[in-house]
């Protein structure tokens, strides 16, 4: 799957979606099944289930809003070293799914390259962490009943059809750790729609919904969960950054006079107010989130010492939100995964290709920057050792 074949950003409308729908209302974008080639297929799901030891809660079945006990579709296997793992039983699995259970596989973006590329595209576009869960069902039984999520979701219908009943929110922007529980949704949905293969649905957090497949027709869809970025996150970050001030690190004057306590609070108010009034506060916070983004796991075996000067070696960044800047000193700075690297300005064309998120041949990277293969391999080695890039195979 490549972003040229299927782009969620383009399907939803790009900048107009961000300005008009994101965080405000649901949106449906219709598409064709053929556009999803290479994303995830039933054969891919069979292969993942066959070749990975996936146990609850990462792999689970649910029906009627409740998870099924793992022993209903798997059995324990004791190895000769006395470790125990749950082995799927295909016949029991099939029967539970035929009876109305929904199969859920969390973080399929870590198990399948196509889903991983989709997650990376969304992370570059929306500047936030993304986890993709897979849902497969065969009957009109609702696996989870009417419920809401504490994060925005983008749903991609891969195969079959899925009915979505949307009830809207009963609490604005509810959170996982909240002070109130949202009120129950209305009895009748505000929207009743069916997604078919190729369709995309965006749903803001807090929107009550219920989902079911068409009777007797297999349905496979991906739900892309978007990490929220809230005022609470900003306040938490601000409390961390303000620890550079002695006042914030100081003990509260709990046993001081009323005047001492009032003076302390006033100084604290002035400090916090000054930060809240700075015009670039949200920009600085966003840059911090991007800079400390967790890299996706991708080793570079067999190259355990250094990346060799092989012109056909494939190289890519495994972070979606890197920052590349020229410095006043005439060098170039790359910020990614919580680290910074400073390279000669000659490396700028090489790094400029990598930050786009695509895979590139080492030879092409060297040619773009007019570096030798050994020099380009040295740059890539630094990034691989910093766990923000990976190399291997052929480009």
Your description of this structure?
The protein is α+β, with helices and mostly antiparallel strands. It contains twelve helices and 19 strands. The strands form five sheets. It has an eight-stranded antiparallel beta sheet. It has a three-stranded antiparallel beta sheet with strand order 10-9-12, with no helix packed on it. The protein has a three-stranded antiparallel beta sheet with strand order 18-14-19. Helix 10 (348-354) crosses helix 11 and helix 11 crosses helix 12 (373-385). The mean pLDDT is 93.
Helix content: 25-40%
Describe the sheet with the most strands.
8 strands, antiparallel
Question: Number of helix segments?
Answer: 12
Strand order within the widest beta sheet: 1-11-8-13-7-6-2-3
Describe this structure in a few short sentences.
The chain is an alpha+beta fold and 395 residues long. It has helices at 8-12, 15-20, 42-51, 90-98, 113-126, 231-241, 246-249, 258-276, 281-291, 348-354, 362-369, 373-385, and strands at residues 27-29, 59-63, 66-67, 74-78, 84-88, 102-105, 130-137, 152-159, 161-169, 191-196, 200-203, 207-213, 219-226, 313-317, 323-326, 331-336, 339-344, 360-361, 389-394.
Task: Name a few traits of the molecule.
395 residues, alpha+beta, eight-stranded antiparallel sheet, three-stranded antiparallel sheet, 12 helices, 19 strands
């Amino acid at each position: 799957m490549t972003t040229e074949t299927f782009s969620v950003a383009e399907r939803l409308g790009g900048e107009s979606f961000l300005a008009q729908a994101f965080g405000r209302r649901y949106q449906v974008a219709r598409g064709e099944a053929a556009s999803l080639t290479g994303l995830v297929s039933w054969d891919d799901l069979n292969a993942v289930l066959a070749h990975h030891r996936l146990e609850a809660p990462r792999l689970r079945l649910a029906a009627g809003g409740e998870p099924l006990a793992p022993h209903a579709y798997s059995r324990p296997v004791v190895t000769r070293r006395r470790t125990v793992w749950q082995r799927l039983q295909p016949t029991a699995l099939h029967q539970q799914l035929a009876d109305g259970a929904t199969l859920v596989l969390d973080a399929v973006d870590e198990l399948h390259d196509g889903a991983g590329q989709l997650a990376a595209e969304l992370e570059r576009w929306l500047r936030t962490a993304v986890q993709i869960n897979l849902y497969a069902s065969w009957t009109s039984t609702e696996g989870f009943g009417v419920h809401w999520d504490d994060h925005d979701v983008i749903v991609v219908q891969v195969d079959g059809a899925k009915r979505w009943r949307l009830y809207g929110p009963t609490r604005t922007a509810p959170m996982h750790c909240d002070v109130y529980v949202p009120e129950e949704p209305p009895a009748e949905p505000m929207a009743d729609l069916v997604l078919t293969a190729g369709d995309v649905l965006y749903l803001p957090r807090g929107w009550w919904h219920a989902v079911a497949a068409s009777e007797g027709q297999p349905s496979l869809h991906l739900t892309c969960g978007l990490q929220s970025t809230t005022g609470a996150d900003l306040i938490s970050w601000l409390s961390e950054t303000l620890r550079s001030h002695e006042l914030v690190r100081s003990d509260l004057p709990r046993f001081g006079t009323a005047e001492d306590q009032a003076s302390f609070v006033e100084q604290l108010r002035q400090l916090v107010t000054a930060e809240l009034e700075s015009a670039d506060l949200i920009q600085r916070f966003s840059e911090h989130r991007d800079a400390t983004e967790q890299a996706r796991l991708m080793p570079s075996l067999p190259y355990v010492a250094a990346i060799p000067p092989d012109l056909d070696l494939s190289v890519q960044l495994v972070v979606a939100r890197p920052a590349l800047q020229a410095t006043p000193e005439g060098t170039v700075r790359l910020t990614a995964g919580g680290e910074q690297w400073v390279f000669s300005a000659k490396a700028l064309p090489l790094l400029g290709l990598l930050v786009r998120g695509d895979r590139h041949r080492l030879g092409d990277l060297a040619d773009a920057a007019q570096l030798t293969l050994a020099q380009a391999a040295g740059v890539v080695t630094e990034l691989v050792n910093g766990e923000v890039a990976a190399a291997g195979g052929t480009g």
